[in-house]
Amino acid sequence: MWVKVCGIRDRQTARDVAEFGxxxxxxxxxxxSPRSVTANEAREISNVLPSEVTKVGVFVxxxxxxxxxxxxxCRLDIVQLHGDETSTYFAELQRxxxxxxxxxxxxxxxxxxxxxxxxxxxCHQNEVRLAGCLVDAHVAGVFGGSGKTxxxxxxxxxxxxxxxxxxxxxxxxxxDNIAEAISSVxxxxxxxxxxxxxxxxxxxxxxxxxxxxxxxxx
Length: 218
Prior knowledge:
Elements (H helix, E strand, L loop, with lengths): L1 E5 L4 H10 L3 E5 L10 H10 L5 E6 L4 H11 L3 E4 L5 H10 L4 E8 L5 H12 L6 E6 L14 H7 L8 E3 L8 H8 L3 E4 L4 E3 L2 E2 L1 H13 L1
Helix pairs in contact: 1-2, 1-8, 4-5
């Protein structure tokens, strides 16, 4: 089970999360998020991480040139896009950053995954290669980190695992519900942010440890 802890804001937390065994950490560049980091902070965090921990940059409707610069400056391995970016946006980023992988974050509502299917069909037409699809809860005006869960059973039923990129489950995951979430959805990976915090943007060591342990043991 691939586990990403998102919204890391300082070097010590990054070291701790890496030591606890996370596969990836998320660096959030969306300035309106309580988990956002500056380019300087992200670069410092990146410099203290061991090479085996994947560095994921989280972006929301950024200019392509800004994403390109931050990937290079902060040595990011994956770009995760949470906004309204189109398949042509992805295609241009892919052209500029051929060594970088890409994750599409999708906010799922009760309407299901019909919109995701359309987007992935467009990606196929534009020869966009996605390393994964991260499915989060749809909350009006919020681009992730809401603490709300997705409809797990509906997601498990509608997600086309044989055709679509690896499924990464997000949205309201905590140490208490991660076992049930994994059992219900059977994702390739999971992503947590607010569910392991003592306050917005502040990771709790005990919660991070417990989340990782429960995710691995499921």
